[in-house]
Each structure stands twice: as structure tokens, then as C-alpha cells.
Design a protein that fits this description.
Length: 165
């Protein structure tokens, strides 16, 4: 694993998710951050590498055709932005935009794909209910079917709105 260079997209694992930012050098990072309990106050800001790391280890996210100075320029233009959305404008969207000029979050997409897989299980559960009856299906797949159906709705909404961005 290489050490980050000025303008690199970096990330740190924080349990169930990864936090992303742009490394500026001299111990500084620009990232989309806020209090974990309330992202309503999240904003693009400068922080120390230590604050960004929050006890974790930094990894460099590799990009092809990476222009470090353009990346930093884009990041600086967004300082103070507050339009955070976990699905459409999070720290990974921000970092990928700074590097590539396109907002995207593979982390969110992986989550949606998992949700869609749950929807398939939910559909199977609904079919099992129709074939075997409510009692048998509830014993076999009840919680899975309910969770899958809910997740199908989340995946559908995400996919509909993400196409507009």
C-alpha cells in the first residue's frame, strides 16, 4: 500500500462503511463530514489527517488519468457545501467528483445491489406464501419475505432518483 500524495483520493474503514476524502499534503484533508448521529450539519471542510483517520488506517483509492491539481481545485470549490445525501451526495460521491468530474459511490451501489438481492428473496417469499399458504410460508420465509419486499422499495426509489443525477 502506497502513501498518499497531494491530490489523492483516500479512504479509511470505519466499521460498516468507508469514509472518503482528498489528501492535500501537510497533514490536511478535504472531506464531506459531519456528526455521525446527524448528517444534517455535514459539510465539505478541511480537517487534519488525524481527525479524518479517526483511529483507522488510510488507503489510497487509485484512479486512472488522475490530475492532482484539478482534483484539489474541485475540492476547494466545494468547501462549505452542505447538500449531504447518503444516497446521492456523500463523501465518496464528493471524492470521485473531485478526481473524475463525476459523482458516484460504488459503496452505495453495492448496498443497493445487496438490497435488490434481498428483494429477490422477498419475491420468492411472496411466491412461497401463495403456494404453501400463509402459515407455512411464515415459518419458512416470513421475516425474509417482509424484509425483501421493503428492500425492493428502497432499491427501486434509489435507482429511479439516481438516474436523474
Amino acid at each position: 500500500m502506497r502513501h498518499p500524495q497531494r491530490g489523492d483520493h483516500i479512504k479509511v474503514h470505519r466499521g460498516t462503511y468507508e469514509h472518503h476524502g482528498i489528501f492535500l499534503g501537510n497533514g490536511k484533508v478535504i472531506h464531506f463530514s459531519g456528526e455521525i448521529a446527524s448528517k444534517s450539519n455535514a459539510e465539505v471542510r478541511y480537517d487534519s489527517v488525524e481527525t479524518f483517520k479517526n483511529g483507522g488506517d488510510i488507503e489510497v483509492v487509485e484512479h486512472e488519468d488522475h490530475d492532482p491539481e484539478q482534483t484539489i481545485r474541485r475540492a476547494n470549490e466545494l468547501i462549505g457545501s452542505k447538500d449531504y445525501s447518503v444516497f446521492f451526495n456523500n463523501c465518496e460521491h464528493f471524492s470521485n467528483y473531485c478526481v473524475e468530474g463525476e459523482k458516484r459511490s460504488p459503496q452505495v451501489q453495492r448496498g443497493v445491489t445487496s438490497v435488490a438481492s434481498g428483494a429477490t428473496v422477498g419475491t420468492t417469499g411472496a411466491a412461497t406464501t401463495a403456494i404453501l399458504g400463509t402459515t407455512a410460508a411464515a415459518v419458512i420465509l416470513g421475516p425474509v419475505a417482509a424484509a425483501g419486499a421493503a428492500m425492493a422499495g428502497v432499491a427501486l426509489v434509489y435507482n429511479l432518483f439516481s438516474k436523474k443525477k
